Structure formats: C-alpha cells, structure tokens
Amino acid sequence: MIAMLRASIALLLVPAALVHGQSGISIAEPTKGQLASPLLRPFHIGKRIVSPANLTDSPRLESLVKSGNLYLSARDVVALVLENNLDIEIQRYGPFLAREVQRRTEGGGFLRNTDSPVLAGPQSVSLAGVSVNANGLGGGGGVGAGGGIVSQIGPVPPNLDPNLYAGFSFGHTTTPLTNTLLNQTTALTNDYRQFVLQYSQQFVTGTSTNVTFFSSRSRLNSPTPLLNPSTTGYIDLTVNQNLLQGFSIGVNNRDIRVARNNLKVSTLQLKRQVITTVSASLNLYWDLVSFNENARIAQRAVDIAEQLHHNNEAQSKLGALAAIEVTRAAAAVSAAREELLISQTNVAQQETVLKNALSKNGSQSPWLDEVHIVPLDHIEVPKSETIAPVADLIKEAIESRADIEQTRVNIDSNKVLIQGDKNGLLPNLSAFAELTNNGLAGSPNPLYNNCCGAPDAYFVGGGGTLAAQLARRNFPNYSAGISLNIPFRNRAAQADYATDELQLRQTELQLKRALNQVAVDVKNSVIGLQQARARYETAVNTRKLSEQTLEAEQNRFKYGAVTDATLVVQAQRDLAAQESAEIQAMANYTHARIAFDEAVGRTLAENGITMTEAISGKVVPK
Do 352 and 398 reside in the same domain of the chain? Predict the structure, then answer.
C-alpha cells in the first residue's frame, strides 16, 4: 500500500506536457505566473490555456490570385478545403475534445459528450441529372453519426486523482463552572490550536485509502492538569476495499477505455467530415466548370442568333426576305440572351458558394468577394476505365469506410459499459481496516497545586516527544470489519442492464444493416458510373447530329432552298441545348465518380489526402 501511495505522489510531481496540434489548436499547462505559488505548482493547480480559434486563411488562397482572378485547379480546391474550410476546422476540435474527456476519466471523472455532427457539404446552386446526397451514400451511410458512446450506468468510477487536505484553526473558549472541585476555577478558559493534514487516494482496483495526521494544542487556566499546555495527536491509516460491487479493474476503468474509443471515433468523425466536405467541394468545382462551359455555349448561341438577325435584316431591306423572318430572328436573339443571363447568373452564384467553402471568411472578405474564379481544369471522361468486380469493391468498402469502423468501435464501447451494468447488480460488500497511533506531550503545569501527583516524565516534552510516540506506536488502536448492503429486488439496476443489452443488440443489427447498405451503395455507385458514361456517350452522338442538322438547314436557307428561317433558328436552339446537355453529362460523370469513390472509401486516396494533413490543416506541396 505504501508503494501505491508513493507511486501516486510521484504522478503528481510529473509536469504535464504541452498538448499542441499543428493545426494551430493548442492546450498549454499553466505557466509559473499563473499558479498560486511554487508550492502548488507540482499539483497542476491552475487553468489550462486554450489557444484562440484561427480565423485566418492560409497563404495558399491569396497566392493563387493574379490580376483579380483566382486560378484554381481541382488539386488546389482540395488543398484549400483542408486548410480553410470551417466545417472541417470545427470537426478538427473533436480529437482535442475527446482527449480532454479521456484526461477527465483518467482522473475518475464521468464521461462527457463532446461530439460534433458531420455537417453536410455545400451544394451547387443548380444541379440536374444525377442526384447524390451530401455523403454520396445511401441510407446506411450515416450509421454512427452520433459520435462516441456516453453512459453513466453502474458503479461510480473511483476518483483516481489524489487529494491533499490541510486545515488549521485556533480559538479561545471560556466556560463558566458551577462545580469548582474538578478544575478549581469558576471559569475555565482554553486557548487552543488544531492542525490536520490528510492525504486520500482511490485506486482502479476499488481500493480507497487515506492517511490523516491530527494534532491539538491546549492551554487551560486550571491548576489540576498535570501537563499544561498539552498537545495530543494521532496518525490514522484507513483502507477500504470493495469486494463485490466496484471490485474489478475492468469495471472501474470502463470509462477510461470508452474515452479512448471515443478518441478513435472523433478521429473517424473528422475523417468523415473531410470526405464529405472534399467531395462536396469537388462537386462545386466541376459544376462551376460546367457552368462556365454553358455560359460559353450560351454566348456563342447569342452570337449566332445575332448574326442570323443581322443577315435577315440585310436581306429584308433588299426585298429578298419577308419581314416576318427578321422578327423571328429577333425573337431568337432575345431567347438566347435570356439563356446567357441565366448561365452567367449560375456562374456568379456558384463562385460565391465555392469561395465560401474555400475560405474561413468567405464573402465577408472584401478582396475575395471581388475576385473572379478561373477553373484551370476541364472535365474529361476517359475513353475506358476498368472497374473491379463488385464483390471486391464491397470488401474494400467494408474495410475502408469510416462509418463502418465507427460503428464497430461504438459496439466495443457498449460492451465495455455493460460490464459496469452487470457489476451494478451485485450487493455492496466492503472490508475496512484502520490503524491509529496516538501520542501526548506537554509541559508541567505552572499552576499545578500537587493535587494529583507528579506528571509522568514520559509525556513531558514538545513536538519531538509527540512525534517519537507516534513513530514508536506506543499507543496504537486497531479495527477491521466488513459491511454488506443487499438491495432487495434491485429493479433499477436490473432494468439498466437489460436496457443496455437491448441497445447493444440494436447496434449490432444497425451494423448489419450498414454492411448491407454498403453493398447497395457500391452496386448503385457502379451502376451510376456506368449510366453516367452511357449518357455522356449518347449526349456526344446527339450533339454531333445536331451540328450536322444545323449545318444542313443553314445551307438550305443560304442557297434559297427554303425562305423560312424557322428551321434554322430551331436547329440553333437544338444544338445549344445538346451542347449544354453534353456538358451536363460530363458534370454528371464527375458526380458519379466522386460518389463511387465515397461509396468504396477511396476519396482520400484518390485525392492524395493523408489523415496527417487532415488533422494538421496543412497540405504539403506534392
């Protein structure tokens, strides 16, 4: 037991290390000037300092701006999201919060809920064709979204942080007496000083100990005490041990083990947030690329419509064309300009959404608000791609997806906590042992009137005499015993145990459902990818046919085979629509590819993201 006490004191004297994250999140121990005194510094008494939130964008964002334009590639988008996105930055605090809860449980405190939900990523201003949810996953993708497990059922965990108590008091009392025979005075006065020092410690084995030193010095105005002033004192050692309820390391450290699991869960939550936000931001980027292409197509449609209108006006003035054809051409110009305005509006709105995802200040930053985004990448659909067999993809997804791993960790936490529920069904049986050493010392009473004989020289002395008596154990007290407390029926504990067992079964079924959903997600993502490719190929062929149709109608109208420009205008509109459909099909392919990577668990690998970068918020140039 003495060795355990020494080990606990040694733990107190070890200074805690600075907890620091490369992301700028840091938790520092109190400095010398923030502690009450050097005497208390080894006991870590003082507040720990948490760094302020970092609201400054990384230098990368401004470095990509040239001549009022923000030149972005898909790789730049990924890097800026990791460094500046607020959704990820919020989730980045999760592991730090979980680590502090673990620190709390290691001291014997209860678990605390510090989870932050995974936030859905930003959405494009306009989406058509393939529709994916925020995670690109089906209904099972959100299993475990509630974060870690928190429960306080069962025996209360021991307080594993030692406690040191010191108290000092002094005073004066005056007691009127009706019987003067005993103290030989009509008013007994007492000047006293008392001091108590106690060290207490609980252990994960269910053992609790305390060592107490007490002394009391008293000076009376009575001539009858042999020693006056006198000092009494004792050293007391008490040990208590739970024998049934609360008697198990696995029960008493269950919160610590769950806190460690919750730390894993918080890291998985961060991973899921990175995947969600990166996928959504890439969807934003590729939609912006497609919106720019649509604006270019719309501008070309306006140019063609204006050229037709100009030609029709010239021919109408020469009398070679009816005036109605000028009106029809003018209407086509108006319709084309409307489509151009819609396309330009989509581009402007999409830029605003994308800027907000790439910056901590978003549109509130004046210089960024005025910047125009110029995408550097173009959507490319590969001529062919090899997709592994679905069975292999499902196996890969089960091994890689963070939501599945998170659910498994939570099931393990539930099993750990149920140990406490089961232990809570037992009666309270505890044993105790107490050892007390007493002592007495003092000076001969100067008021003594020889009423009761001479004082024993063994007790004459000061603090050294008292300490020597305590060390020699001249006046020991011993006691030991056991106590048993049996709660009849114990319905609350029984209900808690059954409830948590039922919830564990639910969680196990949820895991099975999630595993089934993984298969659905993977199969649907493969089908979606194949469908997106087929739709793209169809859109390309349709656009080529529309180009041929427009060319034929323009030649017929040009050489007078027809005098009605309606077919030319319609062919122009059809071509613009088919070009826009081709661009949208390309964008839909990128959405399907991103959803496929999410479903299989490849998002980080496909985009060259490491969890070190995700946690630190700093992307190393590649």
Answer: yes
Query: Is 527 within the bounds of a domain?
Result: yes
Query: Does 235 reside within a domain?
Result: yes
Total count of domains within the chain: 2
Which tens digit of pLDDT belongs to each residue from 323-370?
A: 887 888 888 889 889 988 988 899 999 999 999 999 988 777 788 888
* pLDDT score for 526: 93
Pair (505, 466) in one structural domain: no
Pair 206, 241: CB distance under 8 Å: yes
- How far apart CA 622 and CA 605 sit, in angstroms, is 14
Centroid of chain to Cα 503: 23
Q: Are residues 269 and 385 in the same domain?
A: yes
Where are the extended beta strands (E) located within 154-264?
163-176, 187-202, 207-220, 227-242
Tell me which residues of the chain have a pLDDT lower than 70. Answer: 1-24, 28-47, 126-146, 560-566, 622
Helices (H), 55-180: 59-63, 74-84, 86-106
587 with 505, same domain? yes
Q: CA–CA separation, 313 vs 324, rounded Å?
A: 10
Sign of CA dihedral 63, 66, 69, 75: negative
Strand pairing report for 187-202 and 207-220 = antiparallel
Domain of residue 404, CATH code: 1.20.1600.10
Contact 531, 406 (CB under 8 A): no
The answer for residues whose C-beta is within 8 angstroms of residue 347's C-beta and 6 or more apart is: 288, 291, 292, 295
φ, ψ of residue 175 in degrees (nearest 5)? -125, 110
- Bond preceding residue 476 cis, omega within 30 of 0: no
539 and 449 share a domain? Answer: no
pLDDT digits (tens, 9 = 90+) for 205-234: 999 999 999 999 999 888 878 888 889 999
Enclosing domain of residue 353? 262-413+495-616
For the question of whether the overall pTM of this predicted structure is more than 0.85, the answer is no
Cα separation, 11 vs 571, in Å, equals 83
| Tokens matching residue 77 | 């988008």
Shared-domain flag, residues 377 and 459: no
Assess whether 287 and 381 both reside in one domain.
yes
